[in-house]
Amino acid sequence: MNVKDKVIGIIAEQAVLDPSDVTLDSTLEDLGIDSLGLVESIFAIEEAFDIQVPFNANAPQESDFDISSVAKIVEGVERLVAEQKV
Amino acid sequence: MREMKRVVITGAGTVNALGRNVPDTLEAMREGRCGIGELDIPDIDRLSVKIGAQVKGFTAENHFNRQQMSLYDRFTQFTLLSAREAIAQSGLEFAGELAARSGVVLGNSGGGMTTLDENYRSVYEEGKNRVHPFVVPKLMNNAAASHVSMEFNLKGPAFTVASACASSNHAMAQAFQMVHGGMAPVMVTGGSESMLCFGGVKAWEGLRVMSKDACRPFSANRNGMVQGEGAGVFVFEDYDHARARGAEILAEVAGFAMSSDASDIVMPSKQGAARAIAGALADARIDRSEVQYINAHGTGTAANDKTECAAVADVFGPYADSLMISSTKSMHGHLIGGTGAVELLACIMALRDGIVAPTIGYEEPDPECALDVVPNQAREAKVSVALSNAFAFGGLNAVLALRKV
Prior knowledge:
The complex is a heterodimer. By secondary structure, chain A is an all-alpha fold.
C-alpha cells in the first residue's frame, strides 16, 4: 500500500468513513475530525510510518506540517518518510 | 440563616465484583457470596499477591463506542455504567435550571492506574518513544466526574475528591452538604477505583498489608486486605424536590462528619475514628441508642479492625453490644477510593429491605473485635438508622449517617 492510501485509510478510520469517501481535496473539518481526532490521526500516522511528525496543537499553522487538506497531509508524510528514512 | 434541606437518595448504581448492577450486588450480599478470586492480569507470576475482587468478563466495547474507549480508563467506564443505572432509577433528566445547578462529586484515589501502567510498560519495558495522545485525559482522576457531567448535562459543581480509602465518603459528604445547604437541588455522587494492574498490586504488596488468601475482617486469623475494583454512584436530591416529582426514595442521608487523626500516615487512631462516628451522630441529631447497623471500614488488617471496634465501643458504650457491624469488603474487596460508595449499598439494603449484609470469611472470634459482626450469614432485622465508616491512610476519616424514610 502506498503512502497516500495508507494515510487515507487512517483518516477514514478516524472519521468513521469509507476510504472512498475521503478525497485528496477534503479538509479535516469537512470530514468531521475535531482537534482530538487530529492528534489521534497524527499519532496513528507516526505509528504506521515510524516517523515523527512535527506538530504542535497550540500553533498548528507554525508547525512544519501542513494539515489544510488530505493532499497536504499525504505530501507531508511522504516528505517525512523520505527525510527520516534510516 | 438559609433553610437547610433534607437530603434523600433517589437512585443507585454500581459495577463491582459481586454484580454489574444494584440488584445483583444486593443479592450477592444477601447470599454472602464472595467476589474474590485469582487475578487475571499480565505478569501475575511476578506478584506474590495473586487474588483480588476483580470485575471479570467485562467487555467495555459493549457499552462504549470507539472514541469513548480511547478516552475512558476502566475507572471511568465503571463510573459511567453506575451513573447510568443510578440516574435512570432516579428518573431525572437534566435540562435548563436543574442542569445548571446540579453537579457531580466523585471519590477516587489512584486515577487511571491501568492506563498509567500500560503506558509505562510501553515506554520503559518495550522501549517505545511514543504514547497515545489521550494518556493524560484518560488517567487524570477527575476524568470520571467530567465524563459523567458531559453524558448527563450536569453543569453545576463538579470535581473529584481524593482521600485514599475514604474518598467516596468524603465525596458523598460534599454532595450531601451542597444539597443540604441549597447550593444544588441534585448531586450525583459516589466513587470508583480500578488499580488491579501489575504496578498497582505490586505497590500494595510493598506495604505488606495484603492477604494472599482471603479477606476475613474481625476474625482472629485475619491476615490482611484484599483489593477490589468497581464503582458506586448515587443520586442525592433535595427531599422536597424528590417529593414534588413523586420520586421513589431509597433512604435519607441524615448527616456526616469528617476528622483527621493528625498522627500517622498509615496507622489508624481510635480517637480520630471515634470523633468521626460521634460527629456524624451529632450532625444527624441521632442518639447513639438509635443505631442498629454500621457498615464497617473493616479492611481485614490487624490494625484497622481492632482500632475500629475500640472506637465503636467508645462511642456507643452500653449500646455497642446491641448493634450490628459488618464488613462487606469480605465479599467485594477493598475498592480504595470507591469503597464507601459500594458499601453504602449495604446500608440502603439494611434500611429498605431489613437485611443486614454479613461479614463473610469469619472463622475465629477475636477478643479485640468483640462486637456483633454478623458473621458469615445475612440477617433479617428492622434497621432505621445506619452508619457507614471510612478511615483512610493518611488518617482521614469520614462517616455518613443514613436514616430510613
